[in-house]
Structure formats: structure tokens, C-alpha cells
Amino acid sequence: MTGTASTTTQPAPKGELMIRTLAMPADTNQNGDIFGGWVLGQMDIAGGVACFQRAKGRVATVAVQSMVFHRPVRVGDVLCCYVEITKVGRTSMTTNVEAWILRRGEGTREQVTEGVFTYVAIDEKGKPRPVPAEGAPLA
Ligand SMILES: CC(C)(COP(=O)(O)OP(=O)(O)OC[C@H]1O[C@@H](n2cnc3c(N)ncnc32)[C@H](O)[C@@H]1OP(=O)(O)O)[C@@H](O)C(=O)NCCC(=O)NCCS
């Protein structure tokens, strides 16, 4: 059929942007690409920031349930981590974390990773504490 309007939808990050940082030469692996552990660490920080906000205080990472590396990250790429809290338990919060890059010199946006991270709200002694109700005032 001719004359049909194209309605191609660009893929977009899911969740809220929590951190945006620059991949530096010190973060490379033996291949010259960015070390996967660095990317995972940034995603862990992003999930932790989101859960710190939700739990109104300290949290600790208790599990990384899954981690998929779709595309390499290179020096000079801008890494953006997006977080969606998918489940809130009594003391735990499960998050989907996606990392996207703004590719250096190309201006394109690509998803590079996704993972599922779980955090536990902890008290000053490092023991689990209940996640407060959403919208609750600071304790
Ligand atoms: C996080 C920590 C305080 C939890 O203490 P714990 O005594 O094991 O806690 P519990 O068994 O009571 O579990 C607490 C919550 O975590 C969840 N949980 C525990 N282990 C889990 C796992 N492997 N995967 C997913 N969720 C888990 C429980 O289901 C529970 O959730 P709920 O309260 O919403 O039902 C403790 O395991 C810890 O200090 N771990 C080290 C944290 C750390 O150093 N992280 C890296 C640096 S941030």
C-alpha cells in the first residue's frame, strides 16, 4: 500500500535518570573498551540512589539478580543510568536498571546494559528496617 504514514517508535529508556557520567581511560579493560565491572558499579550506584530516596535513608545492595551487556561502552561515551523500582517489600526494593550511552562523536543514544538489582533499607547498625510508606515524612 502506498501513502501510509510511517509510525516507527524509537526505543526509549525505562525509568528515571539517576546518574550521568563520562567513561574515562582509567575505566578500560585489556581490549581498550570500558570494563564491565565499572558499568555494573555505576548501575549499582544509580539503583542505590533511587532506593535511598524511596527508603528515605541508608540502603545496601543485597543481590544482583541479572546483568546483560548488550553493547560495548567506549572511552568518551556518556553513560546514563535509568532506574525503575518494580517491587517494594517489607525491607527490600527491587529495581530494573538500564544503562544507555550517548556515543562519543556520533550523538546517537544506545542501550548498553540492563540488570535487576535488589536493595535493603538498613538502620544505623546495618540491620534491615521497614521501607516507609510512599510519601511518608522523614523519620
Ligand atoms: C543487606 C543485609 C543487611 C540484609 O540482612 P539480612 O539479615 O540478610 O536480611 P533478611 O534476611 O531479613 O532480608 C531482608 C530483605 O532482603 C531480601 N533478600 C535477602 N536476600 C536476598 C536475595 N539474595 N535476593 C533478593 N532479596 C533478598 C529478603 O527477602 C528481605 O526482603 P523483605 O523484607 O522485603 O521481605 C545483609 O545481607 C548485608 O549486610 N549484606 C551485605 C550488604 C553489602 O555489603 N552490600 C554491598 C555494598 S552496598
How much β-strand is present in the residues? 35-45%
CATH class: Alpha Beta
pLDDT < 50 runs, ≥5 residues: none
Rg of Cα set? 18 Å
Structural class assignment: mainly beta
Count of individual domains: 1
Q: CATH homologous superfamily?
A: Hotdog Thioesterase
Bound molecules: coenzyme A
CATH topology-level fold name: Thiol Ester Dehydrase, Chain A
Strand order of the largest sheet: 1-3-4-5-2
Largest sheet: 5 strands, antiparallel
Tally of helical segments: 1
In CATH, the architecture is Roll
Give the mean pLDDT: 92
Task: Give descriptors for this structure.
139 residues; mainly beta; five-stranded antiparallel beta sheet; 14% helix; 38% strand; globular; binds coenzyme A
Describe the structure in brief.
This protein is mainly beta and 139 residues long. The chain has one helix at residues 36-55; strands at 16-22, 59-69, 78-88, 92-102, 109-121.
Task: Please tell me about this protein's structure.
The chain is mainly beta and 139 residues long. The protein has a single domain (16-121), classed as Roll (Thiol Ester Dehydrase, Chain A). It is 14% helix and 38% strand. The protein is built from 1 helix and 5 strands. It has a 5-stranded antiparallel beta sheet, covered by helices on one side. The longest helix has 20 residues, at 36-55. It is globular and about 45 Å long. It starts with 15 loop residues before the first strand and ends in an 18-residue tail after the last strand. The mean pLDDT is 92. Residues 60-63, 89-92, 118, 120, 122, 126, 128 line the site of coenzyme A. Coenzyme A binds at residues 60-63, 89-92, 118, 120, 122, 126, 128.
